[in-house]
Amino acid sequence: MDLSVQKHFTVVDYVVFAILLAVSMGIGLYYALSGGRQRTTQEFLMADRSMGCLPVSLSLIASFQSAVAIIGVPAEIYTYGTQYWFIGFAYILGLIIPAHVFIPVFYRLRLSSAYEYLELRFNKVVRICGTLTFICQMVIYMGVCVYVPAFALNAVTGLELWGTVLATGLVCTLYTALGGLKAVIWTDVVQTIVMFAGQLAVIVVGVQKAGGVSDVWTKVWEGNRISSFDINPDPTERHTFWTLGVGGVFLMLSLYGVNQTQVQRYLSARTEKEAVRSCYMVFPSLQLALALSCVMGLVMFACYCGVDHSDKLSTSSRDAMVIYFVMDMLHGLPGLPGLFVACLFSAALSTISSAFNSLATVTMEDLIKPHFPAMTQRKAILLSKGLALFYGLLCLAMAYLTHLMGDSVLLVALKIFGMIGGPILGLFSLGMFFPSANSIGAVAGLGAGVSMAFWVGIGAILTRTSGSKTQTLDCKVTQSNDTAAAFQIALSNITLSRPSGLKRLYSLSYMWYSAFNCIVVIVVGLLISFLTGPMKKEDVTPGTIYPLLQKIFWFLPEHLKKKLSCVTPLEQTPAVQQRQLLCQKSNRSAQQDRPIQEETETFLPDAHMTHVEHETCV
Ligand SMILES: O=C(O)CCCC[C@@H]1SC[C@@H]2NC(=O)N[C@@H]21
Ligand code: NA
């Protein structure tokens, strides 16, 4: 351990960090004591559906940009080069499809939880399965997000590990439980700004210490960290343009299309247009976040290449080396180490608070309310806050489990999304794009997708092959002359003995997990649906199908398009209008603390609700 770094936490740094925690707490208290004072679940869980597109868009970024990306991406770029940057291409379709496919369907059904859609489209069992799968995904992911900043700082600055985990967890649980979604969204805004500021500070200081932009560029170019288009179609290749650009789209859809954390933000927007606009506004900020963390990795390479620092750290993990690099750059500049610590914890807090709040929402909306319709608002609120606390403590326990996972933290997070987020994306896609899919098919498909995901995921860990074929480019390349360099690169690119059969399945790049598992759910779901009798068009709830074929063949004449869409088109269906009318009425009654019953009834259309006439099917 390089003790020289430890000294650099001056009082100023602790003050900067404490200010961030205090501001977050202040926002939580403000929303607990102002507005509707969080007395209704509409306000606590849905922010009164009153949010503008700017705060929603910053909160959307904050939800899935945590310390994992702040530390994991620079470590990835330092070790393997800028190939990972190609994931930026996935952000294009990864945000356009949610904006024009998922948001319209969810918004017009006026849901509180994304999983309510599954009951509308299928049945209660499918909704429960979807909710439980989501809870598993977010609890594991939250554990990683709490653990990473504390572990990284402990490894480098000796900052008390479990003390910071506890401080982070408690502050976060408190302001989430007190201030609800409004507090979570506004703390996300502050935390995203701090996150960008911290990364920028490290880049500016690092470039200056590396001798200026041109020196940095020369070093990273010679160190062949600037990756070119790798269009190798081999799916076991860890990072190629295809695994990141195409596989990444499915990853983005599982997060920004159907993940409750993001869906809840879309639904908290004032109007559908605001929700779509907030989705578009995510694009530039997400590219900025990606660029900052990639450039930070390049600057770290320029400063450190050729000099091996692992002897100075108790762990040889590249993730800890990133923190070492940051502290090495910022020491002697009072306040900046504190700013970066604040940046790290802002990234973590904004993700964890979003996860708590969405976990409390789905637990209330999907698992509790349907069984206790007579529950009063007062009890519902108390329970929602209790749940936020419960999930806070659960995530601390998960943080400990993360201690045991070996991989780089970025790898762990991306695998979680692929293994669990992928099947959930498959479940929603099965519902939205395939009118014939029925509930049995949905449950069977989800089960198949999750078991396939764990089979491949665990198989890869046991055989340590998931996309590990890419050799790490070592730094010595910079000292040698070009012929040796060329030889070195040629050597590292020689493909190892191609794995066969099952081993090939285990060596599937984890960037394909989302796509692979999503497709498994859809294929199995359709197969079982046809075997058990496909859903009849007239039984499908209006507004739950996205007329995919009709939209793809938009250029066809009207009468042909009608033949393509077997179920009510997306436009406002009378059923939805009727329900909105009832919602507004029940919201007014809910203020007077009347039983929540009416509100629950209006959310779920009952069978006799007039079905709009259906186009004749082929
Ligand atoms: O930072 C994290 O907590 C998770 C790692 C990144 C998750 C994915 S990567 C593509 C997309 N862009 C982001 O900023 N987050 C998600
Ligand atoms: Na975050």
Name its key features.
binds sodium ion, about 625 residues, Sodium/glucose cotransporter, 26 helices
Structural class computed from helices and strand pairing: mainly alpha
CATH homology-level superfamily: Sodium/glucose cotransporter
Count of discrete alpha- or pi-helical segments spanning 4 or more residues: 26
What percentage of amino acids are in beta strands?
Answer: under 5%
Largest sheet: none
Helix and strand pattern = HHHHHHHHHHHHHHHHHHHHHHHHHH
> What is the global morphology?
globular
Average pLDDT metric = 80
Tally the structural domains.
1
CATH fold assignment: Sodium/glucose cotransporter
- Residue ranges: pLDDT <50 for 5 or more in a row? 476-495, 592-618
Q: State the helical fraction.
A: 55-70%
Q: What is the C-level CATH assignment?
A: Mainly Alpha
List bound small molecules.
biotin, sodium ion
The CATH level-2 architecture is identified as Up-down Bundle
For the record, give the distance between the C-alpha atoms at the N and C termini, rounded to a whole number. 71 Å
> Would you report the number of β strands?
0
- Cα radius of gyration in angstroms: 25 Å
